[in-house]
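User: structure tokens for this one?
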Amino acid sequence: MLRQGGERLKLQELPFQMLLVLLENAGEMVSKEELRRRLWGEERFIEVDKSLYVMARKLREVLGDNATQPRFIQTVSGQGYRFIGQVRPVFTPQAKPGLEIVQPVSPKVAKRSDVRHIALGSLLAGVVLAAVAGAIYRYTHRALAGDQDKVAVGAFINNTGNPDLDRMLSFVVQLKLQESPYLSLIPDGKFRAAVKDVDSPSLKDELHACASLNGQVLLKGQLETKAQGYQVLLTAWRCSNGRLLTTQKSAAASQATILAALDIATDRMRRRLGESESSLQKFNVPLVQATTASLAALKAFTLGEEKRSQGEAADSVASYKLAIDLDPQFALAYARLGTIYNNAGQSALSRQYYEKAFELRDRSSDREKLYIVTHYYEYATGEIKRAIEDYELWRTLYPRDLVPTNNLAIDYLTMGEPQKSLELAHRALKLDPSNSLLYGTLAESYLKLGDYANVKLICDNPVYGKMNVMGFHRICYRAAFAQADEAGMQRQIQWARGNPEESDALDDAAWVAMYRGQMIDARRLFTAAKQNALANNSVESAASALVEEANLEADFGSLPAAHKDAQDALALPFASAFEQAYAALPLASSGDISNAQALAKKAASMAPLDTMVNSAMLASVRAAIHLQQHDPRQAIQSLEETRPLDFSSYMELAPGYYRGLAYMQNNQPQQAIVEFRRVIDHGALADFPIYVVLSKLELGRALQLTGDQANATRAFSEVAETWKNADPSFPPMQRLHTYQRQSH
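Assistant:
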């Protein structure tokens, strides 16, 4: 604070900090970049020029200065600011009364014994600044938690006798505290799992659970009835010794203002825990705006959150829908339903809920707004690059938040950048080493890098290797396949038996059979995958199995079968734009150009912004049509659009293979060799390297045409080894024999 002649003057924290920096460098110009670094650290999303201009203006107002004829703060145009008044250090607190600035500092920065004063000789007669260690600080409250300390949110006791207020208040506090980028919260589901009696836990049990999870501070709440309304109490306890650290209170005149009282109490608690005033100003949306004004809707949402955190996602749907019925403006409830339906493979429903959440995104906290925006771009519009940008922003603003870090790792896997994914997966595990789901992301990153030994270590881990997640076991199956570990593959297939998502495991087994040229087995497995998906009410998974089979049939040369599978898939009632586009590809490859074009047009209209649909899948469809029309130049041009997505996990390396075929049809074998080798060199990125072995086959032919018979023979030998147990009627095997005969 500022004092002049004993009278207190108002000055906000950031202008005060700016004054400190200028005083430390009195007489010298301090650049805008240095001020940015000192005031905001590494935060990148600050309008520096505008912010510094505003703060300099506020300082001048307080100091009685003038920008055109400055006595104290001079603007150095385009560069920075300079304090031009005289500064004289004095070491006695009995300086003349005048202007005094007082600011708290952590004991780690300065000690009480370091206090000194700086007098500004030309400011006003006798103006004094009280300082600590030259930075003008005086020690006040010590923060109860450091920025690395973990905080657990315990039970919130409802002593009002009103059951409508039960269970939800703890969640509300958790949500409010999640808005803080300073605090590191223990996930609610993990904390509840560690508490013995979660419905009526004792303080002792909650402290023990907090300590067992390496937490430092436990927050508990209480709601009391008073003569004039209600009182909210928040208490903070040291997990290691059970010491009460602080109690923050707030009054509510009525039930309708309880959420507003919780806002006040949590704000006070955030300050006592150590969060800065600037952070509180930036990340502090009122609960009524961030959630809902309806306590009934909030309770329904809380029940949904509890079920979801316990792994009962399907059962949580009714609770979220009730929350929306009670408050149709409840943005976060729509977003949760979008996520649940997306995870269940119901992309059309997922898109609808994400779109509604995005429309209402301003009715959420900053953190939840980032959750809504990233999921909207990723799953509703399919703009994965925009999603990545916003995940990066989220991670910058909330560096201790696990969600953006892990989701970024997954998105980089989707984009075919496993090295970036691996780095992020390790960072995510540093944030929460006990989260078993993160090991799935780590295992897939190793898998895509071809590091099968590390994948095996994770899959064989006695704890993480037993997680009940289909996606993880599919990763382990693929790693076993890559190492020709038949026993390991069978263990994963056995694990999947009876699982509601067993169709995914059957689909993987079908791809392996196709890779080996065993089309009879592959067709049987694809049929089983389709039937299993339909039996588990997953129409899109059934359609996906049929469309995948159709595309592989087409690329192997079984065109009538490919056309039939595509038509069978289209007969199912699914609404995924990607699957529509994927189904257009075998239609185009089998010569049904008019239907392929119509389906491609439909897919583009359904998802006009979707990166994978338009720039990968539909570009491949256009190329297939051009090849059918014997126009390889146009096919090559269409496939240039796919090049940034060649390694995407959605495409299985197919675009590079198609581009090589187009160059072959255009009598450019040298360019085809480059494309085929590019596919082969990145084989680890494919879940199953079908397009790798097909590229080897066509590479051999291209090498023949350029006269490199030795390398052509080597390529053909590798292909023959892969297909040594192929069906006699396997079309690519017949093509291999034709090429080999041409070598003699």
